[in-house]
Structures are given as C-alpha cells and as structure tokens.
Specification:
Layout lengths: L2 H4 L5 H13 L2 H8 L5 H7 L4 E5 L9 E2 L2 H5 L2 E5 L15 H28 L5 H26 L7 H21 L12 H13 L3
Antiparallel strand pairs: 1-3, 2-3
Length: 210
C-alpha cells in the first residue's frame, strides 16, 4: 500500500533512524530511508518543481536522469519528472511532502555531524594558535546550532507543517556553508568530504524547495 493511502507520518524514532543513516551510511542510504514508503507515482506527485532526487539504484528503467557529476558520485540520481506543458498531476499528496521533508532534514543533520567529525580532525593539523582557537570556536557554534535544529525537528511531532520543515532546511543550508568554510580552501574540491553537504542541499531543493 502506498504511503499516501496508509497515512503514515514520521515519528520521533523514525526521525532518529534517518539521522543515524545519514551519519553512518551516507546520503544515498539516508535518502532511501526517506523515500521508502513512496512508489514511483508518489515520487512524481511529491517532488518539488518536477525534479526528484532518488538513490541511483531507485531510478526507474527509462527514466530521464539529469546529468550531475557530484550527485552521481554520492550515489544520487536527479530524475526529470516534468509533465508536458498544460498538464498537471491530480494525485493527492496529503501530509507526505512535509513528512519527506522532515525525514530528509534528519538525514542532513546526520551528514553535518559526520562532516563536523572531519572538521575536528582538520583542526588539529598544523596551524597558528589563533586560527586553531577560531576554528574550534566556529565548530562549537555550529554544533550548538545543529543541536537547535534537532530540537526543532523533535518539537514538530508527527504532523509537521510544510512551512516549518522548509524553515529547518533553510537553516541547515546556512550551516552547510559555514561548515564548508571551516575547510577553506580544500572544502571546495569536488572530492572533499564536504561535497556531500552541497549534494544534500540539491536533494532538498527537489523535495522541499529553496
């Protein structure tokens, strides 16, 4: 039975599981958990703006996949699900967009935590004492804001509003860029671990919007 028909909402334990998946197994695995109860028709109905980011192995045969190098390296495919001009989808989505957004925010928190682990290792590399203290202060500040985002998710309950979920994702995007600056200039290389945060932002844009 489709997630729409069953009326399933994200509970606290499920959100914790999504965060754990993002932290331990990465974006693609976390995204698979986010979309686990959506069938292919659900994907097209819930996706924002006609594009849907899915785990690469979830891309249906014959689907139109947007070429995106960084997404592909993270095991993510961007599907082009737009309808011809003049047509609209009539499938009822209910609370599913907000639930998907809530789960995805939890995955992004897990990813942020993982990249912050890298930042702590990076901070012990040879650098001036002043830069070292500034880096640790910046990491501490980001950690506190990640915790605030986690508390905000926990406070949404089983039926979050789309507006509230969108606001959390906007906060996480700002944190992503703050974390990327911790690795300057290496953090902007396509093969750096921080890459996953940029791809996660792209994924979120397909499900939540900007």
């Amino acid at each position: 039975m489709s997630g729409f028909a069953s009326g399933i909402a994200a509970g606290p334990g499920e959100v914790d599981d999504c965060e754990h998946a993002g932290y331990t197994t990465g974006l693609s695995a976390g995204l698979a958990m986010v979309l686990a109860d959506l069938d292919d028709a659900d994907l097209a109905a819930v996706a924002h703006g006609g594009f849907a980011a899915v785990p690469a192995q979830r891309a249906p045969d014959g689907a139109t996949v947007v070429e995106h190098r960084l997404a592909a390296e993270e095991g993510v495919a961007i599907l082009d699900l737009r309808l011809p001009a003049g047509l609209v989808r009539l499938r009822f989505t209910g609370e599913r967009p907000a639930t998907v957004g809530l789960r995805l925010a939890a995955v992004r928190i897990g990813l942020l935590r993982k990249v912050l682990d890298h930042a702590l290792v990076h901070a012990v590399r040879p650098m001036s004492l002043v830069r070292y203290r500034l880096t640790l202060r910046a990491i501490t500040d980001v950690v506190s804001k990640v915790e605030a985002a986690r508390r905000q998710l926990a406070g949404m309950g089983r039926h979050p509003s789309r507006a509230a979920v969108t606001e959390v994702h906007a906060r996480l995007t700002l944190l992503d860029w703050r974390v990327a600056r911790l690795f300057w200039p290496d953090g902007y290389r396509h093969d750096h671990p921080v890459r996953v945060l940029f791809v996660a932002e792209l994924v979120a844009s397909t499900w939540v919007g900007n």
